[in-house]
Amino acid sequence: MSMIISDSSTDADSNIETPTSLADTVSADTPVGLSDPQYVAKKRHMLDAVNRLRATGAHLDLDIPVIAVLGSQSAGKSSLIEAISGITLPRAAGTCTRCPTECQLSRSVEPWRCVVSLRIVTDEDGKVLSQPQKIEFGDPIFSKSLVTERIRRAQCAILNPDAGYHHYLDASPDELEDRQLSFSSNSICLEISGKDVDDLSFVDLPGLIVGGEPREARFVQQLAEEYIVKESCIILVTIACETDFENQSAHRLAAQFDPYGSRTIGVLTKPDRIPLGEEAIWVNKIQSGDKAGGIEYFSVKNPDSQDIKRGITYEQAREGEADFFLTRAPWSSLEWLYRRRLGTDKLTRRLGEVLSGLISKRLPELQEELDRLLDNTNRDISRLPKPPSSEPVAEILTLITDFVRSVEDLVGGSPDENGLIQALREPRVHFKKAVRQTAPDFRPLERPNDVRAMPDLPPLTFLFNEEEEGYEPSDPSKAIFVEDVMKMANSAITRELPNNFPYIIIKKYIGSFVKQWDLPSQLYFDFVQKELNGRVRLLVEAHFSQYAHGHLKQAVMDIVQNHVQGCADAAGRHIEALLEDEHEPFTMNEHYYLEYRANFFAYYKGARNRAKSNFIRNLEDHRDQDMMTALNEAMSSLTRMGLQAVKAPSLASLLPPDPMEPAVGIMADVRAYFQIAYKRFVDNVPMGIDRTMLRGMIAGLKEVLLKGLAISGPDGYQRCRTLLSEPEDIVERRSELQKRRQRLMSARKELVDAFM
């Protein structure tokens, strides 16, 4: 169990409610201590719970309580760590603390023991690992004298990752001088247990650099900030009494992240080196910590370099410290309340109390934060594309089958108002109207001087039952008058008998309106092709968007678009054939044709007669009573003369022959055939496009995709794996989230056990 550095970006809630000061967490007057078995057991249980949480890597995601020891170089931080842990750190030249050192101390009835491990949280390039690694560095140590060298070798292994971590267990002294990195965020873990060991966990950070190489100073400060920025980090800041307080960078950095001092404990080191006359400044620090909201200060006295050279023992150092504060002014004259803040043993006990209090407060909060993080992590995983199958061929076959089924649904039609078939309905209506508008505008009258002033013809009432709305000619300049038709008919006569005109005249007029059908046909065709392509692209995106990295999506897109283009080409050829057929007039609907012709002939002839003769107008004017009387008398006279059942309209036959009647007959022929042909055409074009382009693309689509993707044959399996491959960022993200979920689930189990 150990403490490690975590990434400064955490998903845990950073707005953690903290006490006004550490004094609010556990009072220094609380009658507990190492002599209270119940308290010791509870503290041990909570420390174990936090250490187990860290062992799962949960500190990468959660703000877990930790004590971080912060100080500038030469501020007495290493001596403080030695005094608390009971071990000796390397002190040779160049062996200062260059990576975090996690110390997990636990009281045990077993003999003293130390296990050294490496906590690897970044790779060789300094990139944070999604799952930390804990590597045991050598066998357990049962002699304190062997720890110093092991720590030195462990730090060397961390600073030289390319050589292999275990290489430095037995490396030569010369190799220990190697240094690939100046500093590292990977840490050394010391798990120390024994009868004379207090229950405490903390992490010793590299000393802040004042001056020196700027890049190294920046790295060390950023490393410290990654710890102390978290609200559950207790900052143990070491301050040397031999240096001006305000000039010490560790104090300023701690104040930056904990401006009210609510989670900072100050340790005044080197009290024997206070300049003469400045004692009151430092004594005031010890006394000011009693004020609400202030930093609680302690002072420790550790051996100096001369004592260390003489080989002072741990026990001698502690006795010397106690004697110093008991006999040396001004410390010896402090009141009992403040003397409790003098000495390593007092500091160690206080740290244990504060850490235990914070853990006790945070454990229930961690449970809620952990559950929330698990929910968020599971949601993030669910939003990622599903990972490629271990059976890539089967997966691609399934993807293609599902895609083809969606295309079939698209083309087959659905009740969705935004469906493809629904989208084609209005363009079909526009297509029909455009074709209908090409009807020849025959005028059975002589051409007036100003065509814009010519009178309108009466409506085609006999077409009202088959055409929902009237189609009025839109361009008077395109009107075809009776003499135009007659002139063309006379000019085309070859060897015909009198009163007979060549069929070519009718065919020419038919060809003139059929020629105009090409544009509306092309517009409708283009719309269908564009709409189909767009919707098929959306289906490809919906089914294959996650497979862009392996080019499966693009491959399917290319194959499908080529297939659609082939079907569109077939539809285009079909329309061309329909247009070509319509240039040769033909119909088997003789009944409808003759009926239309009779109606149009009567319509054109009646319009001409009304325009040329008052007799016809008088026959139709039922409002003139004199005319009605004359008509009735005429009908009675014809009856007396022997003409029975004569009707008034038939009297129009009494008019003299119209020399333009052959032209009127040609008009009726052409206009009657237009009604037959256009109705046929506006059905055939959409039906042909539907058959060749829409339904045509479904036919063989699956086979076209399988062939185009080339997934059969000996290389099919590898080909499918390549097509289904994911982008590295998706793979990494999924792996990161899955590892986070595993960490969080392990952490939740540890939390459940902690509350049992």
Q: Would you give an account of this structure?
A:
The chain has 756 residues and is of the alpha/beta class. It has 23 helices and eleven strands. The chain has a nine-stranded mixed β-sheet, sandwiched between helices. The protein has a two-stranded parallel ribbon with strand order 10-11. Strand 3 (113-122) and strand 4 (128-136) form a beta hairpin. Helix 11 (392-412) packs antiparallel against helix 21 (701-709), helix 13 packs across helix 20 and helix 17 packs across helix 18 (614-620). The protein is rod-shaped and about 160 Å long. The model is unreliable at 1-21 and 23-35 (pLDDT under 50).
Main pleated sheet: 9 strands, mixed
Task: Tell me what portion of residues adopts beta-strand conformation.
Answer: 5-15%
End-to-end separation in angstroms reads 20 Å
Structural class: alpha/beta
Helix content: 40-55%
Q: Looking at the structure, what is the overall shape?
A: rod-shaped
- Structure summary, number of beta strands: 11
Rg calculated over all Cα atoms: 50 Å
How many helix segments?
23
- List the strand order in the largest sheet: 4-3-5-2-6-1-7-8-9
Mean pLDDT: 85
- Catalogue the unreliable spans: 1-21, 23-35
How would you briefly describe this protein structure?
Helix content is about 50%, strand content about 10%.
Features:
single chain, 756 residues, alpha/beta, nine-stranded mixed sheet, two-stranded parallel sheet
